[in-house]
Structure formats: structure tokens, C-alpha cells
Amino acid sequence: MGLPLVARWRAVLPAGALAVLSLGACRAPEAAPAPSVEPAGDERSVYEVAAGPALAAAPRPARHIGRGQPPQVLASLPVRADPGAGAPWPPLRTPMIWQIPGARPALAAVTGVEAAGQSTELIEIDRGVVRWRSREPAGIIVGVTAQAIVGAERGTWALGLDGAALWQTESPFLAMSQDAVAVAGAQGKVTVLDAGSGRELMRLSLPEGFVATDVRWVCPARRDVWIIDQRGALHRVVALGAEDGSGAARASARASDRGLLAWTAEPAVTSAVTSAVTSAVTSVEGCAGDVFAATVADAWGRYELLRLARDTGKVAVRLPGVLGHWLQADGTVVVAQAATAESPAGVRRFDAALRSAQLMTPRQLGGKLAAYGDRLLLRAGPALALVDRHGEVTALAVEADSAALGDQALLTAVSSRSAAHTVARWQLPAHPGQAGAGWVRAAAPVQAPAPLRELAELEAAQLAERPGEPSAALAARDGVLPAAVSIPLPGSAENSAVVPFSDGVIAVLRNSSGLSLTRLDSSGQVVWAVPGACAGEAAVLAADGDLVVCAVRTAVGHGPVTAYAAGTGEQRWRRELVAEQLQVHDDLVLVRGADRAAVLRADGLELASVRSASGGAVPAALMSAGGATLLVSVEGASVVARWPAAGMLPVWAVAVEGVVLELRAAGAHALVVLEGGEAYTLRGVDGHAASLPAEAERWFVTGEGLLAMTRSRVDTTAPLHDRPTRLALFTVDGASRWEYDVALPGRIDVLASPTPGDSAVVFGDMQEFALGLSASGPARMLLLPESAAACTWVRPSVSGKPARWVGVSATAARLWVL
Questions:
Q1: CA angle, corner 90, sides to 88 and 93, nearest 5?
Q2: Is 485 helix (H, G, I), strand (E, B) or coil?
Q3: Could you report how far apart the first and last alpha carbons of the chain are, in Å?
Q4: DSSP 657-709
Q5: Burial class of residue 7, CB neighbours in 10 A (0-12, 13-18, 19+)
Q6: What is the rounded radius of gyration, in angstroms, for the C-alpha atoms of the chain?
Q7: How does DSSP classify residue 22?
Q8: Residues 278, 304 contacting (CB under 8 angstroms)
Q9: Are 329 and 288 spatial neighbours (Cβ–Cβ below 8 Å)?
Q10: How confident is the model at residue 131, as a pLDDT?
């Protein structure tokens, strides 16, 4: 390797940087004054500009990874209160955005939480102005129309676009379909109201055996109600005056105000029954002609879109591999599809019969977030895609759970991970489609297929559930094929907060006395316990060296982050931060929360932070490189390595032609996974990139290399979810070590450990079995007792001793050693 990394950096760094390094050589580096994460806004500001801390400019990327085009990084814009709206308001937390259909100028209704409780507001998107905010009536938005915002909590209500109350009822909300709102009436009846006026449009009693809470869609003009029961069966119930039923039946229903069951579409066991629904139904819509139903999605978000005859319930058309669909005002249906045996991936505009289609773009995109004019905003992995009527696609480096479009600006919210997220506003590109146009990833280079090795019949060891003494557990760890040892614990695992440490684990345990942060050795003996530590809705743990860090996520976003001495459990420091993920590496702590990643010293002093340019989480990791600890993170369209101990000095940068989905440390390399499955490793010392020859659904860092999980390529005619799981192990340089098809029942999950030696295990079928993996392939299969199914599994290790997987049960006070 020649000179150590630090010495080689000294040889090339400018004099100013050497001064920083020299100072650091004499004493621990002091953190520079922390810049404001958000610039101070004016007194009318509600949502600030998403500005990050001032960091030294990253070097020009000397390398690139990816075969696509990077999405456009958008400029952040503020949102202010309307000058005539009174005092400015605090930002809403956990917001959800609804686009007001047909509004000019573009408007968005937002529901979220502030100190006073749940609130509703209206934002003019292009001006960036909150027109009004209302705390009464309380509740969340459940739907919007061109004239009304409908909400529900204690009853159902509607506000006008001026914030004035339109109507309110104590009846619980059931469903909303276009301009109709279904509520639960007295004596089990379903009442349908006009969204704008609250006027009653229809009322009926459901047939015996149906409950109002299963109503999913109503069509007052057709006088029918659509029900999806707990089995996923779809039922059409018609009211008086509908075309179904005999005259006598209608007369009988008129006397009792009772609806009639027209037909039922049952989920079928086999797809050979072409006229039946083959999977459970999750949604239904359509009031003009036939109806459209979506079936339950698989693990990859794909479902079937069905067109059913309104009168009979027979399936007329079946579209597989659908990632998103939406009915247009002109009767057409826009469908985003994954590649199937019948058609390639793309976004298509179908006619109302789902028979003929026009390809809008060949890009595989997800569901719709917003529509405005002739433009659609679709999901594209962790990014967004703006699609115009000509199929021109513009990739946007923005993450969102909900959004609304304007002519010049975009409003987004991320609400699924942290209460610290608020509303963000972005400047749309001046010339959409010029950068990122098409956004179609180039085809992967053709490679000779790897030799397929089927999973050999392994001798399965039945793991007997038996009480274990500490001596028995230790003996089992030294055996070749140990039985599972079940050891009593002083509590069960809380929120799966378990991490490996030394020869045991550190976990948040719950017992009759409450929660405690507890360190256990491999025999289940308590080394130390801190009662009351890590108490909250959800705890996050990380440990390394002599430091254990626990963070508690709270309803307001930020919460306590506390460090303890790993040897004694003594508290070291405590800070208030937004923390969703933690990493402890050497003497540094990485705290990731909302759109920020902060690097802390072992004594709790914050050295620096980086902020996401997309409004979502920051892909970041700490890693070792030549005697130093680096922070590797995504900054704009590049992966950048910085040296926290030298004031976040940039070391190298690699341009990304695509969207980074995941970034993790893999020893002295960083694993970078792009949207679409491409994966690369970046060498820590200089950023040298190596491509991994597989496009996987998931990647895992193991002690033997990088494990890829995908679906078998043997039978390409079989549906993807019916193919065996393919596991392949690669070195960090991309060399293949082995490849196996694992045809095992149930849902497959993989856990991996960076410690060498049987460092990965495959759990399947709700943890009823475990398949051990080694450097040479599958090594052993273990059948687990039923009571071991709800365990959080980790793999502690001590130098010179064999490492074993340890599970801490979430339902019983037990620890398992495999």
C-alpha cells in the first residue's frame, strides 16, 4: 500500500488543510461553530428553505458509476403566511398533501400536526403562500374536490377553499368517491352526501352479513355501493331504482329501505379461472360504465388491474405487473407497469376498455403522486418523475410521500419516517425534459450466464426447545452443529432494539417493571442494566468499541440520544436530536434523522453534518480507510467522502449517473446500490469503483463478501414471485464466489454479519427454518421451534471464538443461541 492513507493525504493537501491536521495531531479537534442548519426566515415564514451547513466544496468527480442519468437537483423555496391571515403559524409535522383538482392558480390542501393538535391549511403553490389555516373542526383530510376539502375524526366535515365550514355531521366517515362522501348512518345504514353541500344523495341498508365499515366506493348516479370484505372479495350492492333485481324484490326493498346484493367476485385459487378475481381485491373505482379493481400487491408492489362488467362482475380484462393506475377525466386510464411476459415496462395510456394503449414512456415508474394540467408526477424509486402529455420525462431528485404540482413550483412532504419532516417547496425546471429526458437506464452488458448450482439436500437438524443452563449454552457455541438453546431472560425485546456486542447482545428489554437497557452475555446472564433507559415509542441502538448509543423517536420528531459506557452501562452524554438510524464506528457516532446526518465525537460534541438535497433521508455511512474514519454520503449527484476529524475535508467524489437507493460500509469499501438494482463498491482510500455483476433486489454485507438476493433466471416464463430465490456471493472487487437457487417455502429474509465465518443466515416461512451460508455456499439447515419465530437475530463475536447467531424474542422472555 506504500504510505499510510493519512501520510499520503498530507502529501497532497493544501497548506491550510495541513494546519488543521497538525492541530489535530497535538490535541483533540474542536468543532467549528455549527452553522445554522436552516437560514433564518422572515417573520411570515412557515416553511423554511432546506439549506444545508456550509461545507468545503467537493472535488470534481474523477470517476462515475451508473448507466442512467442523474435526476435534477431542485432549488428549495420558502412558504410564507399570507399577510392578511393574521399571526404566522408554526410548521405542520407529519404532513399530508392533497392537490385541489382543476384549481387555477394551483392549490394544495395540507393536513398535519402542530402543538394545538391536527390542523388543515391551504397553500397557493406557485406563490408559496399559506392562505389560511384551520384547527376546527379537528381531523385529517380524507379527500378533496374542486370546491371542498373533506375531513374526518369525530364525525365527518367539509371546508370550502376559503376555509369556511360547509357542513358537518357526527356520522363516521366510510369512503369518498369523486364528489360523493359515504358516512355511516343510524341502524347500520349507509348515507351518501354531496361533498360540496352535504346534501343527502342516497341512503340504503346493507344486506345481512355486510358491515358499513367495508364500504369502499359509491356511485350515487348508478345507485350502487361497492364493498370489499376481509377476505378480499368484491361485492356490488344496489339501491332502489337501480336496474338490478326483479320488480317484486325492488318493491320489498322499498318497504324496508334495504339494498340488494347484485353479485360477488370471489378471490380464486387458480388463475385458470379467467372470469374470477385471482387475488384479494384492495380497491375499486369507476362510475361511468365498467368498474376497475386492483388486487393485493406482491412484495415488489406489483398488482393486477381488472376491468369487471358492472352488471355481472365478470373479469373482462386483466393487466398484470401494474405499479400504479389512475382514471382520467376523459375516460382513459393511465397505467404504470413493470416488465411482464406479455409486455415490457412502461407508462401507457389505455382506452376505457383497457384494450388498446399508447406508450407514453418506456421508463418503469410507480404510482401517481399528483396531476396538474397535462402533467403527471409519478414515483421513480426514491426520486420523482415529471411526465408531460407527450411522454417526456424529467427526473427530479426529490423524495416524497405526497405532493402537489404548480406551474413553476412543486410542494412535497415526507411523513412515513419522522415527525421532524415538514412541507418542502421546490423550483421546477425551467425547461422540463431537457435534463434527464427519457431517463431510461442503458441495458446491462451481456455476460455469460453463471453456472447454476441447485441447493443440495442438506441434513436438517431439528432444534428442540429446551431450557438451557448457562454452561449448556456455552458448550453449544463450541459444537459443530449445536441444538438451539433457549435461555430465560429478564424481559422480552422491545421494538426489535437488539445489537450484537462482544460475546453477547445489548437490548432494550421489557418486563413488569418497565423498560431497561440491558447487556447480556451469550449465556443470557445480565452484565449490566439501566432501568428506564431508551423508554419511548421506538428505540434505536448502535454499539462499537466502548460506546453504546440509544436514540428514542418521538411524536415531535426530535428525542433523546444517549451514550453509555459499554463496559459498565454508565451514562456518558445525552443530546436532543432527530434520530432514525445510528452507527457507531471507532470513536465517531453517525446520527441520521429526517433529511440530516450528523457526525458526533465520542464525547457527544457534534463535528459537522450534511443535509439531503432531496428532502428525504441522507444515504450516509462511516467507514475505515487507511487508519482514518471517513463519512461517505450522497451530495447532490455525487458520492462524496469527507474526513470528519479534519473539519469535514473532502477527500474524493464519484459522480452518480442514476439514483442512489442505499449506501453502506463494507469493510474498507462503500457499497452503493442504485435504483434498478445496479451495485458498486467504492474503495475508501481513493474512491476507485468496481461494478458488481448482478442486479439484485437486495444486497447484504457479510464477512465473506457481498450477498445478492434476486429471483432465479432459470424459468423466465414463470411469474417472478413463483421463481426460486437466487443467492449469489461476490467479493468487494466483483468476483463471483458462488451462486445458488434456494427453492424454499414462504417469505425469504436474509440476515448478514460483517464477522467472517458463516456470516449470513436465510430465514424462511415466518422463521420456521434457518439456512446457514458460508464462503462456499449453503452449509446447514436448522428447523426452528415455533416460539423462536418472533426473534430479533444478531451475531456477536469474540476474537478466537466461533461466532453464533443469537435471537432475542419479542413475545417471550427468551434468548436463543444457534
A1: 150
A2: strand
A3: 39
A4: SS-EEEEEEETTEEEEEETTS-EEEEETTT--EEE-S---SEEEE-SSSEEEE
A5: exposed
A6: 29
A7: H
A8: yes
A9: no
A10: 94
Torsion of CA 736, 741, 744, 748, to 10 degrees: 40
Residue 392's H or E segment, with its range, is none
- Cα dist. 70→103, 280, 658 in Å? 32, 38, 5
Q: Which residues does residue 190 pair with via DSSP β-bridges, in sequence order?
A: 184, 204
User: Residue 148, by phi and psi: left (phi above 0), alpha (psi -120 to 50) or beta?
Assistant: beta
- Geometric angle at alpha carbon 129, from 127 and 131, rounded to 5°: 130
Please give the Cα distance from 708 to 804 (Å, whole number).
Answer: 22
- pLDDT, tens digit (0-9, with 9 covering 90-100), for 298-329: 767 889 999 999 999 999 999 999 999 988 88
β pairing state of 559-565 and 547-553: antiparallel
Task: State the pLDDT at residue 680.
Answer: 96
- The pLDDT value recorded for residue 512 is 77
Which residues are bridge partners to 557 per DSSP?
554
Q: State the Cα–Cα distance between residues 45 and 52, nearest whole angstrom.
A: 18
**Which set of grid coordinates corresponds to residue 388?**
408531460
Neighbours of 189 (CB within 10 A): 17
3-class state of residue 817 by DSSP: strand
- Those residues whose C-beta lies under 8 Å from the C-beta of residue 465, and which sit 6 or more positions away, are 484, 486, 785, 787, 788
- Output the nine-digit C-alpha cell for 369: 403522486
Distance (Å, rounded) from C-alpha 699 to C-alpha 742? Answer: 16
Q: Helices H, strands E: what count in the chain?
A: 4, 68
Q: Which helix (H) or strand (E) holds 263?
A: strand 260-265
Sign of CA dihedral 140, 143, 144, 150: negative
Report how far apart, in Å, the C-alpha atoms of 465 and of each of 468, 485, 487, 765 are.
Answer: 9, 7, 10, 18
Q: Residue 449 and residue 809: Cα distance in Å, rounded? A: 41
Cell of 84: 392578511
DSSP letter at 16 equals H
Other Cβ atoms less than 10 A from the Cβ of 576: the count is: 10
- CA separation (Å) from 76 to 288, 437, 805? 41, 22, 46
Burial 425-458 (b: 16+ CB within 10 A, else e): bbebbeebbeebebbbbeeeeeeeeeeeeebeee
Q: pLDDT tens for residues 368-406?
A: 899 998 899 999 888 899 998 888 889 899 999 999 999
**What pLDDT, on the 0 to 100 scale, is given for residue 378?**
93
DSSP annotation of 26 reads H
Where is 475: in which H helix or E strand?
Answer: helix 470-477
What is the number of residues in the chain?
A: 818
Q: Which residues of the chain have pLDDT under 50?
A: 1-3, 8, 10-41, 242-255, 269-274, 434-483, 716-718, 720
Q: How far apart are CA 627 and CA 607, in angstroms?
A: 19
DSSP string, 187-250: GGEEEEEETTT--EEEEEEPPTT--GGGEEEEETTTTEEEEE-TT--EEEEE-TTSS-S-HHHH
Tell me the helix, strand and coil percentages in the chain, rounded to 5: 5, 45, 45
Q: At what angle do helices 15-26 and 5-12 cross, to 10 degrees?
A: 140
Q: What three-state secondary structure class fits 123? A: strand
State the Cα–Cα distance between residues 119 and 141, nearest whole angstrom: 9
136's CB contacts (< 8 A; 6+ apart) are none
Cα distance between residue 673 and residue 409, in whole Å? 30
The vertex-524 CA angle with 518 and 527, nearest 5°, equals 45
- Residue from 339, 298, 336, 293 nearest 317 by CA: 293
C-alpha to C-alpha distance for 441 and 690, rounded to whole angstroms: 19
Do strands 736-742 and 453-454 pair parallel, antiparallel, or not at all (unpaired)? Answer: parallel
Look up residue 297 and give its three cell numbers: 400487491
Do the Cβ atoms of 112 and 118 come closer than 8 Å? yes
Using CA atoms, how far apart are residues 181 and 150, in angstroms rounded to an integer?
A: 8
